[in-house]
Write a structure and sequence with these properties.
Order of helices and strands: HHHHHHH
Structural class: mainly alpha
Radius of gyration: 16 Å
Distance between the termini: 21 Å
Strand content: under 5%
Helix content: 55-70%
Length: 166
């Protein structure tokens, strides 16, 4: 994919009316999923999807909540840092991967669902599904419209280009 400036760098953004359902999903997730789990999910899913805009935003947000660069890197690439995340976090991150890499009904195996339920409860598992769906949708919008992470406020250089490689 070309990232050099060109005629499609200023793509039409999504209309406010079309964004209303996205904002409702966002509000639902924010009210029901812990900030901690939200950071795990949003960092991991954005890394999997290669969404530079969302990665920068969620690195900034996690950092503001006290997360270190190494903690952010562990969430973004947890399989390479499995020893740095708790069993409950691994369940959430594995679940985020499974729901993001959807490929039919076998994508989220029963044992993974049961593991998430063990750590977050049945209701929590359902709420995590909505959190994962929400960030996947945001990633797709930001990628399709080529949202520029440099337009975000409050970033530091490592939010756009991490010092510690995941």
């Amino acid at each position: 994919m070309s990232t050099s400036p060109g005629k499609n760098d200023q793509r039409t953004q999504i209309s406010a009316g079309a964004m209303a359902p996205m904002l409702a999903l966002e509000a639902y997730s924010r009210a029901r999923v812990s900030r901690h789990d939200s950071h795990l999910v949003r960092l991991r899913v954005s890394a999997v999807n290669g969404c530079r805009y969302c990665l920068a935003m969620h690195r900034r947000d996690a950092r503001r909540d006290g997360w270190s660069e190494s903690r952010i890197a562990a969430a973004e690439n947890w399989p390479a840092h499995a020893e740095e995340v708790s069993p409950a976090e691994r369940a959430v991150l594995s679940f985020a991967d499974a729901v993001t890499h959807i490929d039919g009904e076998d994508s989220v195996p029963d044992d993974l669902w049961d593991e998430v339920v063990r750590h977050r409860g049945e209701k929590g598992a359902g709420q995590l599904v909505m959190e994962i769906v929400t960030i996947n949708a945001w990633n797709r919008i930001a990628i399709a419209t080529r949202k520029d992470p440099a337009t975000l406020r409050g970033l530091i250089p490592s939010d756009i280009e991490p010092v510690i490689r995941p």
